[in-house]
Every structure is written in structure tokens, then in C-alpha cells.
Amino acid sequence: MKKEYLIPLAIIIGTIIIGLSIYLGTTAEYRAKKAVCEEFWKTFSKEESKATKEEIYLRNNQVMRCITKTYGPEFPE
To answer: Could you list the residue range(s) of the whole structural domain that residue 54 is in?
Structure first.
């Protein structure tokens, strides 16, 4: 590979790495809360293959409502 192609390639790869790390860093709290809420609601709901569309919508709505509260490992009650 020619030397002229290495600098733009390094910039592109570096930008992807930095962008991914920023994204994962800013969404870490949300992902942690979502995992806790989904685990909590999993015990109360049916399997997704057997659930109706209304039940899936209700479960997703409950998970989102749970996330908006201060649940999760960062804010234990």
C-alpha cells in the first residue's frame, strides 16, 4: 500500500474508534437501566413468540416507563 493512502485510512479508522467510544460512553447509563428493567419485566411476561402484539407493546411501554424512573445500578432505591 502506498504511503499516501495510509494517512487518510488512519484518520478514518481513528474517527470510527473515537465515535464508537463516545457513543458507548454516553449510552452506558441508559443501557444499564434498560437491562435491569427488561430483566425485571421478563419474569412477568410470556415468551415473545407466544405474546400478542398488544402484550409486546405493553411490555415495551412498561420497560420505557421503568427506564425513565431512576432505576438501575447507578441509583439503587
So the answer is: 3-68
Write out pLDDT tens, residues 3-33: 788 999 999 999 999 999 999 999 888 888 8
Question: CA 76, CA 53: separation in Å to the nearest integer?
Answer: 32
- 23 within a domain of the structure (yes/no): yes
Among 68, 1, 57, which residue's Cα sits nearest to residue 9? Answer: 1
Number of domains in the chain: 1
Q: How far apart are CA 74 and CA 63, in angstroms?
A: 17
Any domain includes 60: yes
Residue 43 is predicted with a pLDDT of 65
